[in-house]
């Protein structure tokens, strides 16, 4: 749904480790590419590990320290709890529309809500949403590129 899509976009923007889970390899491949395309709409590129469907013999790579966007077949997702050293991972089950974090001490800080207003000062005029911050930052970047 839309709330999970926004949370996924937030995780991508924050360069988190993300695992998409499904029973269908074609759904995984499509959704991993679609998640990456979400960033492209903002002229951004996912420059980290991106694997549409992770082969089961490479499950050890889920413990990597670097950000990743990986699709994982549901039959292998049951082992995620027992993987040692898997830190700060957002897992999205595409078939059940469920999100779960693994070993993420403060998920609200690691994956901020893009719709929640943020107070930057002491007055009511100093309240902005993260989306407004991103739009302002993007405008500044484009202005400086000219």
Please provide a written account of the structure.
Helices cover 36% and strands 20% of the residues. The chain is an alpha/beta fold.
Chain-wise SSE layout:
Blueprint: H1 2-13, E1 17-22, H2 25-40, E2 49-51, E3 68-73, H3 74-77, E4 89-93, E5 98-102, H4 107-110, E6 118-119, E7 127-128, H5 130-145
Parallel strand pairs: 1-3, 1-4, 2-3
Antiparallel strand pairs: 4-5, 6-7
Helix pairs in contact: 1-2
Kindly list the characteristics that best describe this protein.
globular; 146 residues; two-stranded antiparallel sheet; five-stranded mixed β-sheet; 20% strand; alpha/beta
Rg, Cα atoms, Å: 17 Å
Number of strands: 7
Largest sheet: 5 strands, mixed
What's the SSE pattern?
HEHEEHEEHEEH
Question: What is the straight-line distance between the termini?
Answer: 37 Å
What is the helical fraction, as a range of percent?
A: 25-40%
How are the strands of the largest sheet arranged? Answer: 2-3-1-4-5
What is the average of the pLDDT values? 83
**Overall morphology:** globular
Structural class label? alpha/beta
- Uncertain segments: none
Tally of contiguous helical segments: 5
β-sheet strand percentage: 15-25%
């Amino acid at each position: 749904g839309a709330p999970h899509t926004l949370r996924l976009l937030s995780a991508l923007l924050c360069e988190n480790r993300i695992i998409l889970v499904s029973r269908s390899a074609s759904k995984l491949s499509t959704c991993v590419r679609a998640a990456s395309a979400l960033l492209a709409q903002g002229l951004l590129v996912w420059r980290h590990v991106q694997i549409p469907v992770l082969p089961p013999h490479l499950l050890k790579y889920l413990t990597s320290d670097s950000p990743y966007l990986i699709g994982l077949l549901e039959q292998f997702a049951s082992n995620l709890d027992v993987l040692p050293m898997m830190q700060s991972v957002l897992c999205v089950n595409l078939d059940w529309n469920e999100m779960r974090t693994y070993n993420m001490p403060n998920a609200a800080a690691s994956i901020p809500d893009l719709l929640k207003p943020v107070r930057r000062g002491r007055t009511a005029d100093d309240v902005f949403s993260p989306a407004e911050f991103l739009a302002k930052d993007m405008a500044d970047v484009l202005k400086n590129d000219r």
